[in-house]
């Protein structure tokens, strides 16, 4: 393959040196989450969400506890505009939830965006973007650095003129493709924007730094974020936000390292829909925190209902191996894993009995299961499934948990031989019902 055609990130953009502290830090609190499913996720769909889907997704996000939600690109389509109008003119938005609307730095589209939010009671963020990386400047926008800066400042002035007086409105800027943009240019833009928008700790400006197309290992993005954290002017009046995509399959790692590096806010999509390989998956990010004992501040305790809604709205299925939500992620087919899980469950129950702490509250240390499936509303039936790769421990677990059948050690060994022969012959999984039938054939009774 012609790998010589490609260059690494260091050949494309100066990565400013930073006296990095992120490798020694730990994440101890959840960042501010901003689901962008209704905007970035939506713009990646072949069939964008209709009003029913948008509303259903929005209500899901409220029910899960999200407090800031990007609801659309109101100047892009009548559907998006009307949805924002619905939010502005109904009581669908709780008082503690902030609505974000997205716009390019084009005067007529800014005007339409501001028109869409008229009458909105709660907090609103007007989010303006422009691509700042050299290839986009040269090829797409065909502007020099200074010309592009002027276009961005003109957009900022338009927003200020049209909405600056509204006390419930705050401002956000995204230098699209931040990860390929010269850091001194971002500092200059940020300095000017926070000055023009009069950023204060009480009315902070959100500076959102997207890895629009992921191009480097996550440590590079972390350095790029820490550099901004340490060098931004008016830092206490800026909410530093990140918006990773997943082109290299490392969007989650980028977001986590970015939080270590000083990011306070993370934009992404629930289960990772979005342009190309998707936006960063904020479900995985939240549950990664949960799995380390940190409250994610959003509720995934009914993950299958969340999944059904997301699949309905995006019209896309979620992969069976998708972290935390996939159909198979709490299931072991292989013998030694099953054996370990069975012993882990037994130990978990033994400790619950010994301490009097309910199993659902007890510290979780079951091998091969990073979290208790019950935390996200899953049962235990699918944890062990039997095929020709399974062993006596897994087979015994299925019979015991499904039918209360307990075998002696010698019976387990003998029965496993029969199951092995059966599954080798069929080449398929053996269900609990099949195992029970086989058990009765072998031992002539149902124990
Ligand atoms: C990384 C991201 O997710 S960015 C968001 C991308 N999302 C979307 O594009 C979804 C919604 N977009 C749309 O519906 C349409 O693109 C619209 C309505 C916004 C604009 O449509 P059109 O006016 O037909 O323009 P078109 O889509 O071709 O956009 C290209 C023009 O916008 C300019 N442009 C692109 N981004 C920006 C920006 N952030 N600020 C100002 N101008 C911009 C381009 O330079 C180009 O201008 P030119 O025609 O003078 O060369
Ligand atoms: C403009 C920003 C927020 C974006 O969607 C991206 O860069 O992917």
TrEMBL record:
Molecular function per GO: 2-isopropylmalate synthase activity
What stretch or stretches form a coiled coil here? Answer: none
GO BP terms in the entry: carboxylic acid metabolic process
| Pfam families the UniProt entry points to | HMGL-like, IPMS_D2
Keywords carried by this UniProt record: Acyltransferase, Transferase
Query: Its Enzyme Commission number?
Result: 2.3.3.13
Describe the location of the Pyruvate carboxyltransferase domain by residue ranges.
31-304
PROSITE patterns per record:
AIPM_HOMOCIT_SYNTH_1, AIPM_HOMOCIT_SYNTH_2, PYR_CT
Please give the catalytic activity noted in the UniProt record. 3-methyl-2-oxobutanoate + acetyl-CoA + H2O = (2S)-2-isopropylmalate + CoA + H(+)
Which SUPFAM superfamilies has this protein been placed in? Aldolase (SSF51569), post-HMGL domain-like (SSF89000)
Question: What InterPro entries does this protein's entry cite?
Answer: AIPM/Hcit_synth_CS, Aldolase_TIM, LeuA-like_post-cat, LeuA_allosteric_dom_sf, LeuA_N_DRE-TIM, PYR_CT
> Which Gene3D superfamilies does the record cross-reference, listed alphabetically?
3.30.160.270, Aldolase class I
NCBIfam families associated with the record:
PRK03739.1 (NF002991)
What PANTHER family does the annotation carry?
A: 2-ISOPROPYLMALATE SYNTHASE, PTHR46911
What family is reported?
A: Belongs to the alpha-IPM synthase/homocitrate synthase family. LeuA type 2 subfamily.
Name of protein: 2-isopropylmalate synthase
């Amino acid at each position: 393959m012609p790998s010589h055609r490609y260059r690494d990130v260091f050949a494309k953009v100066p990565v400013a040196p930073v006296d990095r502290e992120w490798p020694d830090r730990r994440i101890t609190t959840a960042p501010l989450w901003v689901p962008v499913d209704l905007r970035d996720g939506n713009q990646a769909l072949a069939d964008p969400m209709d009003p029913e889907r948008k509303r259903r997704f929005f209500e899901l996000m409220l029910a899960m506890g999200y407090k800031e939600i990007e609801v659309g690109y109101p100047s892009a389509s009548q559907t998006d505009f009307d949805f924002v109008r619905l939010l502005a003119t109904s009581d669908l938005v709780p008082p503690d939830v902030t609505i974000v609307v997205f716009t390019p730095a084009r005067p007529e589209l800014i005007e339409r965006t501001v028109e869409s939010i008229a009458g909105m009671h709660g907090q609103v963020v007007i989010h303006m973007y422009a691509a700042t990386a050299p290839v986009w400047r040269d090829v797409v926008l065909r502007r020099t650095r200074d010309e592009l800066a002027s276009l961005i400042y003109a957009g900022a002035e338009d927003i200020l003129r049209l909405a600056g007086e509204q006390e419930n409105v705050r401002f956000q800027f995204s230098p699209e493709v931040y990860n390929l943009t010269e850091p001194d240019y971002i500092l200059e833009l940020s300095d000017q924007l926070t000055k023009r928008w009069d950023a204060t700790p009480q009315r902070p400006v959100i500076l959102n730094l997207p890895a629009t197309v992921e191009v480097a290992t996550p440590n590079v993005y972390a350095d790029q974020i820490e550099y901004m954290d340490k060098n931004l002017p008016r830092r206490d009046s800026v909410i530093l936000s990140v918006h990773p995509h997943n082109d290299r399959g490392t969007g989650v790692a980028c977001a986590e390292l970015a939080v270590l590096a000083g990011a306070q806010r993370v934009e992404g999509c629930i289960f990772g829909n979005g342009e190309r390989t998707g936006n960063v998956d904020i479900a995985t990010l939240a549950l990664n925190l949960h799995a380390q004992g940190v409250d994610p501040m959003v509720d995934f305790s009914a993950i299958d209902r969340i999944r059904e809604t997301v699949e309905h709205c995006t019209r896309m299925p979620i992969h069976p191996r998708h972290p935390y939500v996939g159909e198979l992620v709490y299931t072991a087919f292989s013998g030694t894993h099953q054996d370990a899980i069975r012993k882990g469950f037994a130990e978990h129950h033994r400790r619950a009995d010994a301490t009097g702490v309910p199993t659902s509250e007890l510290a979780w240390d079951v091998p091969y299961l990073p979290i208790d499936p019950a935390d996200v509303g899953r049962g235990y039936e699918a944890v062990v499934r039997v095929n020709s790769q399974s062993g006596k421990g897994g087979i015994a677990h299925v019979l015991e948990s499904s039918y209360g059948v307990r075998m002696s050690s010698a019976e387990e060994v003998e029965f496993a031989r029969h199951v092995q022969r059966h599954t080798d012959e069929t080449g398929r999984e053996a269900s609990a019902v099949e195992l029970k039938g086989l058990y009765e054939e072998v031992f002539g009774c149902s124990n």
